[in-house]
Description:
By secondary structure, the chain is α+β, with helices and mostly antiparallel strands. Helix content is about 15%, strand content about 30%. It has one domain. The protein has two helices and six strands. The strands form three sheets. A two-stranded antiparallel sheet has the order 1-2. Strands 3-4 form a two-stranded antiparallel ribbon. The chain starts with a strand and ends with a strand.
Amino acid sequence: MANDSCDGCGRPISVAGGIANLWTFGQDDGSDGTAMTLELADGSDHLLCYPCIAALPDEPTAADVGRLEQVDGETSKLRAQ
């Protein structure tokens, strides 16, 4: 898995797949990651950890992603405007 950081909160994340997992099977097949790339309705795309994805409102924008912050290892929240 490739390692990167969340565009929202900055926590380290792993992205499933990639060349590192090309020949692995079963439990270490690379299908588990801690992040997903989202393309938003405003045309922007962001690599976000699952806690940040859960904190986003319905129909988020790039401004919402910019307001994300890490609370702890398992949760994120939006800063007040």
